[in-house]
Amino acid sequence: MQKIRIKEILAGNTDEKSLSIGGWVKTHRQSKNVSFIELTDGSSIKGLQLVLDPNLESYVSIAEDITTGASIQVSGELQDSPAKGQAFELVVSEITLLGKANPETYPLQKKGHTLEFLREQLHLRPRSNTFGAVFRVRDRAAFALHTFFHERNFAWVHSPIITTSDGEGAGEMFQVTTLDLEKLSKKENISAIDYSQDFFKQPSFLTVTGQLQAEIFATSLTNVYTFGPTFRAENSNTTRHLAEFWMLEPEMAFCDLEGDMGLAEDFVKYILNDLLANCREDLEFFQKFYDEDKKLISTLESVASASFEVITYTEAISILEKSAIAFEFPVSWGIDLQTEHERYLTEVHVGGPVFVIDYPKDIKAFYMRMNDDEKTVAAMDLLVPRCGEIIGGSQREERYDVLQNKIRTMNLDEKEYEWYLDLRKYGTVPHAGFGLGFERLLMYVTGMQNVRDVIPCPRYAGSANF
Length: 466
Ligand code: 4AD
Ligand code: MG
Known about the structure:
Elements: H1 6-10, E1 18-30, E2 35-40, E3 48-52, H2 57-60, E4 71-80, E5 88-99, H3 115-119, H4 129-151, E6 155-156, E7 162-163, E8 175-176, H5 181-186, E9 204-206, H6 211-221, E10 223-231, E11 244-253, H7 257-278, H8 280-290, H9 296-305, E12 309-312, H10 313-322, H11 339-350, E13 354-360, E14 376-384, E15 388-395, H12 400-409, H13 418-425, E16 431-437, H14 438-446
Parallel strand pairs: 3-5, 6-10, 12-13
Antiparallel strand pairs: 1-2, 1-4, 2-3, 4-5, 7-9, 8-9, 10-11, 11-16, 13-14, 14-15, 15-16
Helix pairs in contact: 4-7, 4-8, 7-9
Bound molecules: 4-amino-1,4-dioxobutan-2-aminium adenosine-5'-monophosphate and magnesium ion (MG).
């Protein structure tokens, strides 16, 4: 196992000067008197500069195979670098070629590739500068997420992946079955599926949210969160939707909508500050190559320090109606806000993150708490520039009768939600929570424009490679 990582070496964190390290070649430059290899092990955007005597015995015979993407192991002495661009370099005394990467066929040559091209090379793209940076930031954000919640005494609850409840009541679920569909398709005269023959003996699905199960634990452990994969069979081919994405869902007992927004704001700021402190070089890379205005870092810094604005849905509609923009989707009270509306509100009207609260009851999920006006629910969405909605949350309906009534009027199967109603029947408490799309957050902090570029293996309609 590689104990020393290039990131640590470049940061000057190694006391030992004699080092042995493995990695992949980024570049190899040869001249008469000296050769240079830039080596990466994926721990940082910068590689380690290796300096070689062209006559070094172990090098001579393999020099021509030291091409971009080849894997090598080297030993040598670390010294201060006389050249600009790096503090240290490794003077190599021994080099071994572990694996060639034929330059005729290796897809990731030095020149920059388009993100579309790299999306077709899912198995190799983490070796590129861009995707190395994306996945380091993703890892750090996940780590910071757990730290944030544990510092605040939240318990991490593992909600199930397979479920029989439609947690959003929106019918966007992938069915899970062991029934032989091929065989069934050949049977004549089948008018209904016999689920007693299926694995779970009832229709079951991949979860669209861990919220309902998180509510079980919030009404017993008080403050909890779930974080894991979530599935939606939304057939929307957009740059913001995945069929499999990761969602963070905190759920708090004895909490109202305001407390919910407070936590969401603290959380987003905490993650931004953590990444600004711990992924600085990667963020600088995104700013340089993916941010036209070159303002990514200063934007994140100012968002991390200012208060988020709050407007009601009703206010949002009147702002949109007063704007001179000809939206593709016409605006009137009662519509579901589309991305173009969300982006206008956050980018043009506010110029930063904004919570929109108190949405019409008819466009939101059954579990949201009815407001006194009986037209709106205690919901909140957090909208941010470039992405639109990154968080959706609400105070939950904790009144048994009101919730039961809602389930009935929305034509949901009451039997399915009996256990959920029980949480209100026995020791009910005001409670609230939210869901944050982890990939949406990553798009926001990295400036990547497509959600498919911030998850290892993107799944969307028509595509599930590997
Ligand atoms: O607004 P949503 O649908 O809310 C819920 O699922 C609630 N149960 C959350 C809760 O209150 N515990 O989804 C929450 C967030 C969205 O704001 C968005 O960021 C993300 O999940 N999201 C998606 N991200 C990528 N691809 C998709 N198809 C997404 N659908 C939702
Ligand atoms: Mg939503």
